[in-house]
Amino acid sequence: MYEDNNPRLENEVLEEIIMKVNFLSYINSDQNNTETDFENINFNVLTTDDNKIYLPAFTDLEELAKWGIPSNMDTITLNFDNYVEIILENENIEGLVINPFGDLYILSKEWLRELKDMKKDRLKVNEVRIEANSKILISEPKHLPTMMIETIKNCCDNLGNIKKAWLLEMITEKDKSWLLILDFEGDKNYIFSKISQAARNYLGNMYLDMLPYEDDFARNSVQNHKAFYTKNK
């Protein structure tokens, strides 16, 4: 019925699966279970004709309904990270099948492991390091990425410890990128990671480099430039 064919999905589909989508599935209902305590949840699985076991995931209620509505079942919402955690820790599960009764995608355990590493790489904090004697041009963006700016503003509000933020355009000998400079209090890696996650969908072909305002290069770069974000007092 299902084949572990490790399909080559388009980049857009992979992006949706690993970064954005929440999936639905059935679990055996138990009032003592919680959605985050995976060890105590009895998941419903699908078995192929050759007795391979897959964990099913559904993109919406319409797809879920194709499985029927079993008695004594509850629905649960999980994301990619949740499924990877469950599948990689269970030697009996071969992989993940998305929308098994529609246009299905099958992701083997090996493929899930690769996608997990891919996601980790995408979320790495990109803190720019300026090499000595580098030729760098810093300028005000000619065309402001308004959607990205609004998203970063919202993220700054949610974090609560960003004082100011500047967005500039940086051209080096190698490439062109956005340079985001942040004046903040708190853990730099955590803040940069959150900003990176918030902005990733709006970068297009550009990179987003980040520097703390306390850096000498950053301070010099924002002179005569207006911050696009200032924390409300």
Automatic annotation (TrEMBL):
Domain SseB protein C-terminal: 130-231
Lineage top rank: taxon: Bacteria
Alphabetized InterPro entries for the sequence: SseB_C, SseB_N
Domain SseB protein N-terminal: 23-103
Alphabetical list of Pfam families matching this protein: SseB (PF07179), SseB_C (PF14581)
Membrane-spanning ranges: none
Name of the protein in question: Enhanced serine sensitivity protein SseB
